[in-house]
Design goal:
Layout: H1 2-19, H2 24-43, H3 47-84, H4 102-117, H5 127-135, H6 148-151, H7 163-196, H8 203-234, H9 252-258, H10 261-272, H11 282-300, H12 304-322, H13 342-363, H14 367-377, H15 391-408, H16 419-422, H17 425-441
Helix pairs in contact: 1-5, 2-3, 2-4, 2-5, 3-4, 7-8, 7-15, 7-17, 8-13, 10-11, 11-12, 12-13, 13-14
């Protein structure tokens, strides 16, 4: 077990250092601080010391995150505000490189010290296991954001090769590669074209660009999560599900239970509930909802577009909450039926459309660009034939195939999981080879994972 953990730690540091070895010191420093603070919180008997060491842990992690990710944003925003008030201020910014994955591993380490402070887990004295937990390479740079209570105990068990788990992991990796290489990377071509100069294109181009970005970001991030979870299975680890077919959601509340699950549940457990959740007055509950969505938007990046994106989702969620409809759609849509009803189809279409409008702000470089994109989207040219490469129509077929496979596998952890057990061998292996061929045939110029920037 100790040898296995040491190997994983070494592999994880090599993996992370391959991107930029200088930031190995940053993740090591964060790990040392939280390892020591965890021990001190566990040892301390009086509340003051427990709060002190928790404060050190949170201060260091949020300080690092704030400096590297938000320093320039706050400086530039302050300067703009001062200039707007009629005073003259000069902008000062640093040429900072954002360490890849810093938003993910800082949240992962904070969950450790917070859970110890809450007495929900005891601190570990095994530094190697803890460092391996923080830097676990499959999910280090883009999640899922694992909780210490789930992942850390798995480092204290001797892991043996499990054929069935490994095969399941290989299938999940294959599906993740299909989502990333075939769906996301090909969507990116048309998305980049649409968002490059939206004012000079017909609205029909912009509509395709917005819809394709919805599939790009899902294929990109969902694909990475599947690859990470599948790789974890190969190594004997079980990571949490990060996506649960979010575009089959029937309302915004359901969408957030299915999209980036590790982040939304992190904010729920460590921000929303400590603020009081929905137990206080109606005003306090609405305040907490706004905070959680705005913070979620800000987590994604130092740009007002992300904050407004979070605000849009808050505005869409609140009516459901006020009318007690935020937990109506809990189960799988059309769980015992092959096809959705017209009503369910309409619900999914409306939810997808609202989410897609929000993604325009997420994708745009600034608020002015997002506003211009949406304004141009509602011109009469939306009825014109799109001025795009003919391949866009061919690729629409792949998107439809993707939607069909997701729909058939919506009851499982990932789309093709159960197909491996319920279909004849000729169909099963035909599907595998088809996905492999699609990955090789439709591989484009390398597109970096979107969430690497966060």
């Amino acid at each position: 077990m100790k040898t296995q953990n040491a190997f994983i730690l070494l592999a994880s540091y090599v993996f992370y250092g391959w991107w930029d070895w200088r930031f190995l010191g940053l993740i090591a420093f964060s790990s040392v601080v939280d390892f020591i603070c965890g021990l001190k919180i566990g040892e301390a008997q009086d509340t003051f010391k427990r709060k002190l060491y928790l404060g050190i842990s949170l201060g260091v992690n949020l300080g690092l995150l704030g400096f590297f990710k938000y320093f320039n944003f706050f400086i530039d925003s302050t300067v703009q505000l001062i200039n707007t008030m009629g005073f003259q201020a000069n902008s000062y910014s640093l040429q900072l490189i954002l360490p890849v994955g810093i938003s993910f591993y800082t949240f992962q380490t904070m969950s450790y010290t917070i859970d110890i402070y809450r007495r929900q887990m005891v601190p570990t004295k095994d530094a190697v296991a803890f460092f391996a937990y923080v830097s676990f390479f499959p999910q280090l740079v883009a999640g899922p954001i694992e909780r210490a209570a789930n992942l850390l105990p798995q480092f204290f068990k001797k892991r043996a090769f499990d054929y069935n788990l490994a095969m399941d992991g290989m299938r999940q990796i294959l599906w993740g590669l299909f989502m990333k290489v075939v769906i996301a990377d090909n969507c990116a071509v048309f998305v980049n074209q649409a968002f490059r100069n939206p004012e000079s294109q017909p609205a029909s181009n912009l509509l395709i660009g917005a819809v394709f970005f919805s599939f790009q970001i899902y294929g990109d991030f969902g694909g990475y999560s599947n690859i990470a979870i599948g790789t974890g299975k190969l190594l004997g680890f079980k990571l949490m599900q990060n996506f649960a077919f979010p575009y089959f959601s029937r309302d915004i509340a359901e969408f957030w239970r299915r999209w980036h699950i590790s982040l939304s549940t992190w904010f729920r457990d460590y921000v929303y509930i400590p603020l009081g959740g929905s137990k206080g007055s109606k005003y306090q509950s609405l305040r907490n909802i706004f905070i959680i969505f705005l913070v979620s938007g800000f987590w994604h990046g130092a740009n007002w577009t992300f904050i407004l994106w979070g605000g849009i989702h808050a505005a869409l969620f609140i009516p459901l909450y006020l009318f007690g409809m935020n937990r109506v759609n809990i189960g799988v849509v059309s769980e015992n039926k092959p096809l959705p009803s017209f009503y369910e189809l309409g619900q999914m279409a409306v939810t997808f459309s609202l989410v897609t409008v929000g993604w325009i702000f997420f994708r745009s470089p600034d608020l002015a660009s997002a506003g211009g994109y949406i304004q141009n989207l509602f011109e009469t040219s939306i009825f014109q034939k799109p001025q795009m490469d003919i391949r866009v129509y061919l690729f629409l077929c792949w998107v439809m195939i993707f939607i069909g496979l997701e729909w058939m596998g919506r009851r499982e952890e990932y789309a093709i999981q159960k197909m491996a057990f319920t279909r004849p061998a000729i169909i099963r292996f035909g599907l595998y080879y088809g996905l492999v061929m699609a990955v090789f045939l439709f591989a484009r110029k390398e597109q970096e994972f979107i969430y690497f920037q966060f």
